[in-house]
Amino acid sequence: xxxxxxxxxxxxxxxxxxxxxxxxxxxxxxxxxxxxxxxxxxxxxxxxxxxxxxxxxxxxxxxxxxxxxxxxxxxxxxxxxxxxxxxxxxxxxxxxxxxxxxxxxxxxxxxxxxxxxxxxxxxxxxxxxxxxxxxxxxxxxxxxxxxxxxxxxxxxxxxxxxx
Length: 163
What we know:
Structural class: mainly alpha
Strand content: under 5%
Number of helices: 8
Distance between the termini: 40 Å
Low-confidence stretches: none
Number of domains: 1
Largest sheet: none
Radius of gyration: 18 Å
Mean pLDDT: 83
Protein backbone atom coordinates (compact mmCIF):
# COMPACT_ATOMS: atom_id res chain seq x y z
CA UNK A 1 0.00 0.00 0.00
CA UNK A 2 2.80 2.40 0.90
CA UNK A 3 4.50 1.71 -2.44
CA UNK A 4 1.34 2.69 -4.34
CA UNK A 5 1.16 6.00 -2.48
CA UNK A 6 4.86 6.56 -3.16
CA UNK A 7 4.39 5.87 -6.91
CA UNK A 8 1.41 8.20 -7.04
CA UNK A 9 3.36 10.91 -5.28
CA UNK A 10 6.29 10.50 -7.68
CA UNK A 11 3.88 10.72 -10.65
CA UNK A 12 2.32 13.93 -9.34
CA UNK A 13 5.69 15.55 -8.66
CA UNK A 14 7.10 14.56 -12.07
CA UNK A 15 3.90 15.71 -13.78
CA UNK A 16 4.12 19.12 -12.13
CA UNK A 17 7.67 19.46 -13.38
CA UNK A 18 6.87 18.34 -16.94
CA UNK A 19 3.44 19.82 -17.54
CA UNK A 20 2.33 23.39 -17.43
CA UNK A 21 0.27 24.28 -14.40
CA UNK A 22 -1.35 27.02 -16.45
CA UNK A 23 -2.65 24.46 -18.97
CA UNK A 24 -4.06 22.43 -16.09
CA UNK A 25 -5.76 25.51 -14.62
CA UNK A 26 -7.19 26.50 -18.01
CA UNK A 27 -8.65 23.01 -18.37
CA UNK A 28 -10.01 23.19 -14.82
CA UNK A 29 -11.61 26.56 -15.57
CA UNK A 30 -13.13 25.21 -18.76
CA UNK A 31 -14.43 22.27 -16.72
CA UNK A 32 -16.57 24.79 -14.87
CA UNK A 33 -18.45 25.27 -18.15
CA UNK A 34 -18.89 21.56 -18.86
CA UNK A 35 -17.12 18.31 -19.61
CA UNK A 36 -17.78 18.50 -23.36
CA UNK A 37 -15.78 21.71 -23.52
CA UNK A 38 -12.93 20.91 -21.15
CA UNK A 39 -11.79 17.55 -22.55
CA UNK A 40 -10.91 18.93 -26.03
CA UNK A 41 -9.27 21.98 -24.45
CA UNK A 42 -7.08 19.79 -22.25
CA UNK A 43 -5.94 17.66 -25.17
CA UNK A 44 -5.40 20.74 -27.34
CA UNK A 45 -3.14 22.18 -24.66
CA UNK A 46 -1.18 18.92 -24.71
CA UNK A 47 -1.52 17.78 -21.14
CA UNK A 48 -1.54 14.14 -20.03
CA UNK A 49 -4.93 12.34 -20.26
CA UNK A 50 -4.95 11.72 -16.50
CA UNK A 51 -4.44 15.43 -15.90
CA UNK A 52 -7.23 16.20 -18.39
CA UNK A 53 -9.51 13.87 -16.43
CA UNK A 54 -8.59 15.35 -13.06
CA UNK A 55 -8.92 18.97 -14.20
CA UNK A 56 -12.17 18.42 -16.08
CA UNK A 57 -13.80 16.41 -13.30
CA UNK A 58 -12.66 18.85 -10.61
CA UNK A 59 -13.95 21.85 -12.56
CA UNK A 60 -17.30 20.22 -13.31
CA UNK A 61 -17.80 19.05 -9.72
CA UNK A 62 -16.90 22.52 -8.44
CA UNK A 63 -19.46 24.10 -10.79
CA UNK A 64 -22.14 21.62 -9.70
CA UNK A 65 -21.44 22.32 -6.03
CA UNK A 66 -21.68 26.07 -6.63
CA UNK A 67 -25.03 25.59 -8.39
CA UNK A 68 -26.23 23.29 -5.62
CA UNK A 69 -25.45 25.76 -2.84
CA UNK A 70 -26.87 28.77 -4.70
CA UNK A 71 -30.06 26.91 -5.61
CA UNK A 72 -32.58 29.55 -4.48
CA UNK A 73 -31.05 32.41 -6.45
CA UNK A 74 -30.78 30.31 -9.57
CA UNK A 75 -34.35 29.04 -9.18
CA UNK A 76 -35.69 32.61 -8.92
CA UNK A 77 -33.67 33.71 -11.94
CA UNK A 78 -34.82 30.84 -14.16
CA UNK A 79 -38.46 30.91 -13.13
CA UNK A 80 -38.51 34.70 -13.52
CA UNK A 81 -36.90 34.66 -16.98
CA UNK A 82 -38.56 31.91 -19.01
CA UNK A 83 -36.94 31.45 -22.38
CA UNK A 84 -37.92 28.96 -25.08
CA UNK A 85 -34.51 27.20 -25.00
CA UNK A 86 -34.68 26.74 -21.24
CA UNK A 87 -38.19 25.33 -21.51
CA UNK A 88 -36.99 22.77 -24.06
CA UNK A 89 -34.20 21.65 -21.71
CA UNK A 90 -36.62 21.59 -18.80
CA UNK A 91 -38.96 19.36 -20.83
CA UNK A 92 -36.05 17.09 -21.79
CA UNK A 93 -35.11 16.84 -18.13
CA UNK A 94 -38.71 15.99 -17.18
CA UNK A 95 -38.79 13.18 -19.75
CA UNK A 96 -35.55 11.70 -18.39
CA UNK A 97 -36.84 12.10 -14.84
CA UNK A 98 -40.12 10.35 -15.61
CA UNK A 99 -38.31 7.44 -17.26
CA UNK A 100 -35.27 6.95 -14.98
CA UNK A 101 -35.88 8.98 -11.81
CA UNK A 102 -33.40 11.30 -10.08
CA UNK A 103 -30.44 8.88 -10.44
CA UNK A 104 -31.05 8.58 -14.18
CA UNK A 105 -31.42 12.33 -14.60
CA UNK A 106 -28.17 12.96 -12.73
CA UNK A 107 -26.24 10.23 -14.53
CA UNK A 108 -27.52 10.48 -18.12
CA UNK A 109 -28.20 14.20 -17.99
CA UNK A 110 -24.46 14.86 -17.66
CA UNK A 111 -23.95 13.29 -21.06
CA UNK A 112 -27.05 14.69 -22.78
CA UNK A 113 -27.36 18.20 -21.34
CA UNK A 114 -24.10 18.74 -19.47
CA UNK A 115 -23.69 18.62 -15.69
CA UNK A 116 -24.53 22.27 -15.04
CA UNK A 117 -27.82 22.25 -16.91
CA UNK A 118 -28.67 18.81 -15.49
CA UNK A 119 -28.40 20.08 -11.95
CA UNK A 120 -30.26 23.33 -12.67
CA UNK A 121 -33.12 21.47 -14.37
CA UNK A 122 -33.08 18.76 -11.73
CA UNK A 123 -33.25 21.19 -8.83
CA UNK A 124 -36.38 22.69 -10.40
CA UNK A 125 -38.23 19.38 -10.79
CA UNK A 126 -36.73 16.89 -8.30
CA UNK A 127 -37.65 16.63 -4.63
CA UNK A 128 -34.59 14.63 -3.49
CA UNK A 129 -31.81 17.16 -4.03
CA UNK A 130 -29.03 15.16 -2.35
CA UNK A 131 -29.71 12.08 -4.49
CA UNK A 132 -29.60 14.24 -7.61
CA UNK A 133 -26.31 15.84 -6.51
CA UNK A 134 -24.74 12.44 -5.79
CA UNK A 135 -25.76 10.97 -9.15
CA UNK A 136 -24.71 14.11 -11.00
CA UNK A 137 -21.22 13.85 -9.49
CA UNK A 138 -21.10 10.13 -10.35
CA UNK A 139 -22.19 11.01 -13.89
CA UNK A 140 -19.46 13.65 -14.15
CA UNK A 141 -16.78 11.18 -13.05
CA UNK A 142 -17.97 8.37 -15.34
CA UNK A 143 -18.69 10.41 -18.48
CA UNK A 144 -15.48 12.42 -18.12
CA UNK A 145 -13.52 9.17 -17.96
CA UNK A 146 -15.35 7.88 -21.05
CA UNK A 147 -14.76 11.11 -23.00
CA UNK A 148 -11.07 11.26 -22.04
CA UNK A 149 -10.57 7.59 -22.97
CA UNK A 150 -12.29 8.10 -26.34
CA UNK A 151 -10.31 11.27 -27.07
CA UNK A 152 -6.98 9.69 -26.10
CA UNK A 153 -7.74 6.61 -28.21
CA UNK A 154 -8.72 8.75 -31.18
CA UNK A 155 -5.58 10.87 -30.91
CA UNK A 156 -3.35 7.81 -30.66
CA UNK A 157 -5.11 6.17 -33.60
CA UNK A 158 -4.69 9.32 -35.70
CA UNK A 159 -0.98 9.46 -34.82
CA UNK A 160 -0.51 5.80 -35.73
CA UNK A 161 -2.32 6.20 -39.05
CA UNK A 162 -0.35 9.32 -39.98
CA UNK A 163 3.02 7.58 -39.49
